[in-house]
Write a structure and sequence with these properties.
The protein is α/β, with parallel strands linked by helices and 311 residues long. The mean pLDDT is 94. The protein is built from 8 helices and 14 strands.
């Protein structure tokens, strides 16, 4: 594609605004416009990003090659349908849909039209997760903790759909075995939805993952630990460090010595990397790292976790 890639953003709330600003500064990309039912918000973000503002998402149809859809999950299908039917490539925020039927329909629409569909599991583009994935060969036990303070945004959904689904997606990417057992508990604290939850995923190859997510914690704590034969890895999302411990055999000693290493990661903004990857996939025609099928699988497991806790 020789000309600039024409893009738009539908939904410019907290996260959608960042989508617009990132597109506005990407080389070879023209941010045509943003759309939001909150006209004042659309105008504000459009002024920041240097593009047109629209109250109706349909105004972007025929004017864009690709679009970010950053609207409430409950309306993903309604908003996505006309774009996908027109063959517009789409970065759709996670989760892909509120239920499996709508998720499958979104995937079908993309497949029929040939549009690139990428789901916004941005933690896949976290420098720490990428460094961790390079060093994982056959995980036996995974422990993920994603704890944070309460914020009003995203409280229309439970903590599984809001936060835990990130770590569900990462676990599914790291473990090759089939998921055979899901156990979960959770409870509301400040909202009518589950605000703190714990899930245990068991796989056919013997791997086990314990995942905890909270949006009512006093401090932010995000850590991902992996135990595998010959080593242990611990990723601190907040500090952006990866600690590795592995046994090294020593001459004339009966047991190996535990050698520890800390890697300080080069900070990379995951949303910038995610959007750049989406643009690259649109231009090259390559399959996205987090395509519709990946997003649908994460949704399926998240829904099972919610079902196990009666959410």
């Amino acid at each position: 594609m020789d000309r600039a890639l024409r893009v738009g953003v539908v939904g410019v709330g907290y996260l959608g605004r960042f989508h617009a600003l990132i597109y506005s500064r990407l080389e070879g990309v023209e941010l045509v416009g943003v759309a939001d039912t909150d006209w004042a918000r659309a105008e504000q973000v459009a002024a920041e990003a240097g593009c047109a503002a629209h109250a109706d998402p349909a105004a972007l149809l025929g004017r864009v090659d690709a679009v970010s859809v950053v609207v409430p999950t409950t309306v993903h299908l309604d908003v996505a349908r006309p774009y996908l039917e027109a063959g517009v490539h789409m970065l759709l925020e996670k989760p892909v849909a509120p239920d499996m039927d709508q998720g499958r329909e979104i995937l079908r629409l993309a497949e029929v039209s040939g549009a690139v569909l990428q789901v916004g599991h941005l933690e896949r583009f976290n420098a720490g997760i990428m460094a961790l994935a390079e060093r994982i060969h056959r995980p036996r036990f995974i422990e993920a903790q994603r704890m944070g303070g309460f914020r009003e945004r995203a409280t229309d959904v439970d903590v599984v759909s809001d936060l835990m689904i990130h770590d569900i997606d990462i676990v599914l990417a790291l473990v090759s075995g089939a998921l055979i057992e899901v156990r979960a508990v959770g409870t509301p604290v400040l909202t009518q939805h589950v605000d703190i939850a714990s899930a245990r995923l068991e796989f056919a190859d013997g791997a086990v993952a314990n995942i905890v997510a909270s949006r009512v914690s006093e401090q932010t704590h995000r850590r991902f630990r992996v135990f595998q034969a010959g080593g242990y890895l611990s990723l601190d999302f907040v500090g952006q460090t990866l600690d590795i411990a592995r046994p090294v055999r020593q001459p004339r000693r009966p047991r190996p010595e535990i050698v520890r290493e800390r890697i300080t990661l080069e900070p990379v903004k995951p949303l910038d990397a995610e959007i750049a990857a989406f643009v690259d996939c649109v231009r090259s025609g390559q399959r996205s790292l987090v395509d519709g099928a990946v997003g649908l699988r994460a949704l399926e497991v998240a829904l099972e976790v919610r079902g196990r806790m009666g959410a």
